[in-house]
Specification:
Largest sheet: 5 strands, mixed
Number of strands: 5
Low-confidence stretches: none
CATH superfamily: Gcn5-related N-acetyltransferase (GNAT)
CATH topology: Aminopeptidase
Strand order of the largest sheet: 1-2-3-4-5
CATH architecture: 3-Layer(aba) Sandwich
Mean pLDDT: 92
Structural class: alpha+beta
CATH class: Alpha Beta
Distance between the termini: 30 Å
Shape: globular
Helix content: 25-40%
Strand content: 25-35%
Radius of gyration: 13 Å
């Protein structure tokens, strides 16, 4: 089921809604030209439905549209980017090598 992903600039987070109900969020810190992605949380009752991946993908697309790079501090976001290399270009250049190294070690 497709989620509605919304950017809540005031709270510095991307929010996932299913049928008008908040089911999760991805928090970030605005660093100017980059966003530090700090935490992803999905309502436990909504777990196992792929909502976390939809939320991260929606947030990354939103940040891409804003022209921001990302620093994935959240392990879920880092893992998502490793599995979806089309988003690696969004990762701040100083962090890309670290993600690539982690990917090789996990194989």
């Amino acid at each position: 089921m497709q989620l509605d992903i919304r950017h809540n600039e005031t709270e510095q987070r991307y929010e996932a809604y299913q049928d008008g109900q908040l089911v999760g969020h991805l928090a970030y810190e605005d660093l100017g030209n980059a966003a530090l992605l700090t935490h992803t949380e999905i309502d436990p009752q909504s777990g196992g439905k792929g909502y976390g991946s939809q939320l991260v993908a929606g947030a990354l697309e939103g940040l891409r549209q804003q022209g921001k790079s990302v620093v994935p501090q959240c392990p879920f976001v880092a893992s998502f980017i490793q599995k979806h290399p089309e988003y690696l270009e969004l990762v701040h250049p100083n962090q890309r090598g670290q993600l690539s190294m982690e990917e090789r070690e996990s194989r």
